[in-house]
Amino acid sequence: MKILQPNKPKSRVCVTGMGILSALGKTQDENLQSLRNGNSGIASTKHLLSKYTRTHVFAEVDASNEELLNAAGLAGQAGLTRTDLLALLAFREAVKDAGLYPEQISSAGTALLSASTVGGMCLTQELYADSHLQGTGSPYLSSYACGAHTLELAKRYQMRGYTDTINTACSSSANAIMLGARLIRAGKIKRAIVGGSDSLSLFTINGFNSLQILSDKPCKPFDEHRKGLTLGEGAAYLVLEAEEECKNKKIYAVVSGYGNSNDAFHPSSLSEEATGVVAAINGALATSDLDPGQISFINAHGTATLNNDVTELRGILKTFGRIPPYASTKSYTGHTLAAAGAIEAVYSILCIRHNEMYASLYCDTPMKEFDSAPVSAYTRHAGIDKVMSNSFGFAGNCSSLIFEKA
Amino acid sequence: MYIQDLHCISPQQTQTEPFFSEPLRHYTGNKYIALEPDYAPLIPAGLLRRTGKAVKMGLGAALPLLKKYPDLDGIVIATSAGGIEDSMKFLTQIVDYEEGTLTPTHFVQSTPNSLAGMLAILSKNTGYNTTHSNKSLSFEAALQDALLLFQEGACSSLLVGNTEQFSQHNYNIESLESTYKTEPVDSDKLLKSGTSGTVCGEGAAMFVVSKNPAEALAQISDVGQISSPGQEELHACMVSFLASNQLVPDDIDTLVLGFNGDQRYDFWYSDLISTLFPSQSVISFKNLVGEYPTASAFAVWLSTMLLSGQKCPAEALYKKGMQPPKNLLIYNHSKGIQHGFILLRKAV
Amino acid sequence: MDATELKQKLKAQIIQYLNLADIKPEDIKDDEPLFGGNLDLDSIDSLEIVVLLEREYGLKINNASDGRKILIDINHMASYILENTPAQ
Question: Region A56-62: what's the mean pLDDT?
């Protein structure tokens, strides 16, 4: 099994802006406060229409589509899906945070690398009607594909440069961040706006339920009695810039390492040997040129499925020789699918920026197999300067990122 | 990076030599359906029974290559719609059974990355693995990702490819957007039809690419893209793209263009020819295999054939130039929004 | 419906739900293990069979542990169905 050992990079990849919407809030600050206070965003939903809202909890962004449209200054505009709207708002916060001018966003040297699994398939009824030729066509005909929101962002911001949408299930936006960092290091672009968006949908709710991995109660990552994931929604974007573009700019953190591997075992579960997990983690350590002992904290994938959590910890133990401090923020945001990598990247960077760790919620009984429990309380002055963030998806797609203090 | 080997499933006879039947397969109407192999010898029965067409075609094109090259460093796949029919079957169940107890197979198969995952499982490949799904720039993104891996020194060889299936559901949605012809047109008259709309195709093309030029069939030198440009901006971008590869337009001897018979949009190609490439050979491909978001993968397959000395079918020869193919440029766009370019060269 | 008829019907339904294209009902023995046997079924197939039981017979299997006791072979499945549906 080979580990990517790329040539030494020339330029550091700096994070200069972040934007995020999740069940914890519609801005970076709102998310930060909820994390610090240990307030989970998992609850009964207010806006989602599904039979499962009677029996299950979800992590919903607290806004109707109309409210999101208004917030985006697009009231009355047709054809925008919830996935589009979450993306637009998170993107707007990120580019403003990075202090980017319109000409910089639209320049050929700026890339847009995004991710989604649901795309416009959150519109179950419209998609059903359009695809069965019932009626003359909804306003969403070109909005269903997972790449549709990327095209929408590129159009709105008149982006001419490199665009891409990655779909590797739950590791999608982690791979988008990785690709952005690689393109910058290779000198192909100056900056990349990277991230992803996914909204709650009947498609994913019923999909995960059909696999019997959807929990009706709040998910319990790394708990001995966990019984599945809680679905969430959200979007996050990070602005990555080559270091030479960052004079007089605040730098949140540096993307210093990334690893990508395939577990090559089963379409919807990870191998007992944690092959993909181990390779992704080792890849990230190799590209960042760090030893495991230098990682302060791991933002785990931690979906609370029986398979993921045990496999992830086995993989961490194999690569680190021990289990460093770790937590799953999915206990706050639910599993935001393609957006998870980017949302959790934001949270990892908040740990570095504020030198703190946030509690992993709902873990009452740590897993018996390991002599370790996730971080259980908000911890300040925690000595956090290098954070690893893991994302493992269906079809064996495993990715790991490392962020370092600048 | 160098193309060492390739395999293509398409609406033409592209799977085994001699490639292309004589005469070429002609289509009337809007659906250009792929000629598929017998999958039973290629794909384990337990897998075959639950995979949809997009994954089957992708496996059918890739597995023979993975058998021949068992030590590849990664798998990079492009697909715009993925297992779209599986998605639609699952969605239909949700509506028909009102979110009752549902069967999971279609959900698991529907994700665009299921092909890349399946290929990894079947070849036990734990290397770099990703799926690009960016509508009509998906395959260009896959190529860029692969080129970057070579530039980084992160691999010696990779599998890169696409899959895209004809889906009646997707066709219905696109029809409501007036994407397709409303009158039946023969494929041999498609590009001169003078009417709006195009035709819908499907296919999977897989390539083993490596850093080794020895015995290569062709070289993929670079790939570029631009979104929503004006015509002048597109031309400037093209010139700049060539310049970054130490070329000027006159250095290109062969263009492979995505003409699709839609008179609303084909002017992008004819305009480019008259402005920058008035004397080059021009090859078309969508009159052979139809229009679909990752059709540029077929264009790379066809280009590789030409660069390695295969004869161009008459139906694909849009305009004959003076030079044999040596520096070849593929240009493809979708409705004037996403524009992609791929530069290929004869492997020396 | 008697047990023999039910077993025949079940076999045909399993073939249909799991898309076992090359297999005929007579190829499946009544006591052949569904999992770990010649049919080569996996965890996703078990979920499909759970759906089959609900859609065709109105029987709901609520958890994996119950499922493992019922989905052993055709004999066990048929007994479960006959025990849990009203006599015709």
Answer: 98
